[in-house]
Design a protein that fits this description.
single chain, alpha/beta, TIM Barrel, UCP030820, DUF934 domain-containing protein
Length: 170
């Protein structure tokens, strides 16, 4: 079972669906289009409220002309050891200025959620049983200190925590 989680809790009746041969959009649901499919649809119409699924090998910069027309960008984590979606999320938030919903889909594990939050991902499609249980209990792993800045500031505030001034010699 897959559930959508945000920091406010689990989301009921999320409309976004990744279509497959077995799963098709019905009723009030909306499709998460592949990058090429989104660009083709955006070129044919002035549609807004679109959603796109970015796969690891996609060039997320191709979305730039269409960002204002997107309600959601989903970045795919096909395996726990494939972190290219972290780079996609960071690029979307920091360089391209994307401000709408950014969702992690695929192999979303509880240990990665705090890091995903730091790069600007704000919703999660979760099917891992351990992750679902811990999210339901509001038990995220804590990472108190960070070595570099991110989209989301560390609890200590902005800045580069790794830039320390040496004390002058006595």
């Amino acid at each position: 079972m897959t559930k959508i989680w945000k920091e406010t809790g689990f989301v009921e009746n999320d409309p976004w669906v990744i279509e497959t041969d077995e799963v098709k959009v019905t009723g009030e649901q909306k499709p998460l289009l592949g990058l090429d499919e989104l660009i083709a649809k955006a070129g044919e119409s002035n549609a807004v409220g679109l959603g796109v699924l970015i796969k690891p090998a996609d060039d997320v910069r191709r979305l730039e002309p269409y960002l204002s027309r997107l309600d959601i960008v989903a970045v795919a984590f096909p395996a726990f050891n494939d972190g290219r979606a972290f780079s996609h999320a960071s690029l979307l938030r920091q360089r391209l200025g994307y401000t709408n919903e950014l969702r992690a889909v695929g192999d979303v594990l509880i240990d990665q959620v705090p890091l995903m939050l730091r790069v600007g991902i704000d919703s999660f499609s979760v099917s891992n049983a351990t992750a679902l249980k811990r999210l339901a209990e509001n038990r995220l792993p804590a990472i108190p200190h960070h070595y570099q800045p991110a989209v989301r500031d560390a609890e200590a505030g902005k800045g580069y925590s790794w830039r320390r001034q040496a004390k002058p010699a006595a």
